[in-house]
Design goal:
The complex is a heterodimer of chains A (499) and B (109).
Chain A (H helix, E strand, L loop, with lengths): L11 E2 L6 E13 L36 E2 H13 L3 E2 L2 E2 L2 E4 L9 E4 L6 E2 L2 E3 L5 E11 L3 E3 L6 E4 L6 E7 L6 H17 L12 E10 L9 E6 L2 H20 L10 E6 L4 E4 L12 E2 L6 E2 L2 H10 L4 H12 L3 H7 L3 H14 L2 H15 L17 H12 L5 H14 L3 H7 L8 H12 L3 H8 L7 H10 L6 H13 L5
Helix pairs in contact in A: 1-4, 2-3, 5-6, 6-8, 7-8, 7-9, 9-10, 12-14, 12-15, 14-15
Chain B lengths: L15 H10 L6 H22 L19 E2 L9 H6 L4 E2 L2 E4 L8
Classes of the chains: A alpha+beta (499), B mainly alpha (109).
């Protein structure tokens, strides 16, 4: 397992010269661990909280304070590592990364330098290719500096000290698409391991991409780091742009234009990358062991417990949905989009006893409701109805108390009002009519004057009766069971009662 | 992997320029007489590491601290936060609900 050799990499063809170039990409991901409190302080971080309200003496670096490690952060970091097939070290240590910036009140960040808690592991791309990880380490986040409001730089320390893991890949990636695929798979793994929400909009997943290009078989080019990539689409766009920019620079033949080792920012508006000027000494971090924190020892029992607590992965869930629940691969994919959705589906399936019906109702009706402006819910958690409510509705449909179109109407009302299916059924008058005499009367009515349909059915074309189901449904105000209506119509025609 | 924190064996002997650079990274203002005073001190400190480096440490695990300790961990339970007014009141300058510092754009081009 390693980076594929240049002769098998597709590479990128220069639009100017037609020459093939080989991009080399490595990605660093910062991922926020899903804890209640910060890595070294008891402040409960929440995205969107009022500025400087989630801070303690530790996060603001008051003199005399000491960091105390959050055990849940360690557990989640270990679960992330295990889900990525990495090796967890039985001891690791914390170090100080020293730099002066207003978002870092201590003047240093506590991170792990030469003895990270985790090495190795990897991510399998949809193409089947394995991308190796170099290492994962724990560290604390910095605060937020705001530069565009008034004459001063404004600082909010809510984020300062939030627990992160930094996941560093080997330079195994060969294209912008692979970078996108890598991030998509990594995010899924971290989410399903329960380690992180990986919500880029809330800053709980951030990534930097290192890029160089070279001609096949030649020495790798100079590495450029891309920052400011706030969506996976932007990663693709920025990477594509940067690969072509570097190719063009080399093909110009002018060494003054060749890529230099630097950090560049992506501007989503123009679709271009540009140099981020930083101070000369900005990267002289003078790491040294954090004297306030003794080494971290992880016992085999602790690691075993984390392995046992690791939730089922998305690929395993998809396989189980297809193989033992009889879902299509497509539905299995839809229902494992997020861990919350997968849990929702599994709970509904368990309660109604029919995974296939649960899959249909959730993927067709419940998910659609999340984009319905009349229903004020943007996530499953916001819905006034849980899996038990949907399972109750499915049970009513399966037992024939309401037909499918009526069920849809009930579900919509449930999602709007939060009421139970049973109550809405009578409230909306949608209880299915199974009274044979009533159904037969409606059918008789519908048959009047429909000699063509009758003749067709008698000639063996049963499907012709479909034209009469609609009028019966209409007469019943949608409450008839269409299957029973079809049966009655056919019986009436064949017995001659319709002629 | 990032570079090792231990200076390589062939690292240059400390001179005035190195002391000045290190001081500026630590935001320390040193006048020339202080630098002159510090050069031999740094040389002596680093020299003692040279003595250690001469020892054969093959197969010996690195020791990051002299006393064997294990870090303590705490439960992931929220504690009280600082009162914002009190916290901001300790800073030299504030602007509404933020700490205010001189405009520092580290990363703009």
């Amino acid at each position: 397992m390693s980076r594929p050799t240049d002769d098998v990499v597709t590479g990128v063809v220069s639009p100017k010269t037609g020459q093939r170039w080989i991009p080399v990409l490595g990605i660093e991901v910062h991922c926020q661990l899903k804890t209640e409190t910060k890595l070294f302080s008891q402040a409960p971080y929440r995205f969107g909280a009022e500025p400087n309200t989630r801070i303690t003496a530790v996060c603001t670096a008051q003199p005399g304070t000491l960091p105390v490690l959050n055990e849940a952060a360690v557990a989640l970091a270990v679960r992330a590592a295990l889900a990525l097939g990495a090796n967890v070290a039985n001891w690791s240590k914390f170090d100080r990364k020293n730099y002066f910036y207003c978002d870092l009140p201590k003047g240093y960040q506590i991170t792990q330098f030469d003895q990270p808690y985790c090495t190795g592991g990897g991510v399998t791309l949809p193409s089947g290719r394995f991308v190796r990880l170099t290492r994962i380490h724990m560290e604390e986040d910095a605060g937020k500096a705001i530069h565009d409001r008034g004459p001063d730089t404004l600082v909010d320390l809510n984020r300062a000290g939030v627990p992160l893991i930094e996941i560093v890949s080997e330079a195994d990636l060969c294209s912008a698409q692979e970078a996108f695929d890598y991030l998509t798979s990594l995010k899924e793994t971290l989410q399903f391991a329960g380690a992180s929400d990986c919500d880029m909009e809330k800053g709980s997943l951030r990534c930097d991409v290192n890029i160089s290009v070279h001609r096949p078989g030649e020495k790798w080019g100079t590495k450029v780091e891309l920052k400011n990539l706030n969506s996976f689409r932007n990663v693709m766009a920025a990477t594509e742009f940067e690969i072509l920019r570097q190719i063009e620079a080399y093909e110009s033949g002018d060494p003054a234009r060749f890529p230099v080792q630097e950090t560049r920012a992506f501007d989503a508006g123009s679709g271009r990358t540009r140099t981020m000027r930083s101070k000369e000494d900005a990267h002289d971090y003078r790491y040294f062991p954090e004297p306030d924190l003794p080494p971290l020892y992880l016992s085999p029992e602790f690691l075993q417990a984390q392995a046992e607590a690791l939730p089922e992965s998305a690929p395993n869930r998809r396989q189980r949905y297809v193989e033992s629940m009889g879902l299509s691969e497509y539905d299995a994919g839809v229902l494992t989009a997020t861990p919350a959705l997968a849990r929702w589906f599994e709970e509904t399936a368990r309660l109604c006893g029919s995974p296939k019906d649960a899959a249909n109702w959730i993927s067709n009706e419940v998910l659609r409701a999340l984009s319905d402006p009349e229903i004020e819910a943007r996530s499953l958690e916001d819905l006034p109805v849980g899996p038990d409510g949907v399972a109750e509705l499915i049970t009513l449909v399966l037992s024939g108390r309401v037909n499918v179109p009526g069920g849809r109407e009930v579900l919509r009302a449930m999602l709007k009002t939060g009421k139970r299916a049973g109550a809405l059924l009578s409230e909306l008058g949608l209880e299915q009519v199974n009274d044979e005499a009533q159904l037969e009367a409606w059918c008789q009515e519908a048959l009047v004057g429909k000699d063509k349909v009758i003749a067709d059915v008698l000639a063996g074309k049963d499907k012709a009766v479909g034209a009469l189901v609609g009028p019966v449904m209409k007469a019943s105000k949608g409450k008839a069971n269409p299957q029973v209506v079809t049966e009655i119509l056919l019986r009436l025609i064949r017995s001659g009662a319709a002629s | 992997m990032p570079e090792s924190p231990v200076p390589p064996a062939d690292a240059p002997a400390p001179d005035g320029a190195l002391i000045q650079k290190t001081a500026s990274l630590a935001r320390l203002a040193l006048d020339p007489s202080e630098v002159e005073h510090l050069v031999p001190q740094f040389a002596r400190i680093l020299g003692s590491f040279e003595t250690l480096r001469a020892l054969d440490t093959t197969g010996i695990e690195p020791m990051t601290r002299p006393i064997e300790l294990e870090t303590v961990q705490r439960a992931d339970e929220a504690g009280p936060c600082l009162d914002r007014e009190a916290a901001l009141g300790l800073a030299p300058k504030r602007s509404d609900e933020f700490y205010a510092v001189p405009k520092t754009l580290e990363a703009e081009g």
